[in-house]
Amino acid sequence: MANRFGWRVVSLFCLAVFVVALKVFPYRTIQRYMPRGGLTVAPRWRQVQIFSHVDWASRKVPGATCLPQALTGYLFLALLKLDCRIRIGVAKSAKGGFRAHATLMSGDAIILGDSPDRDEFVTLTELRPGQ
Question: Model's pTM, two decimal places?
Answer without folding.
Answer: 0.90
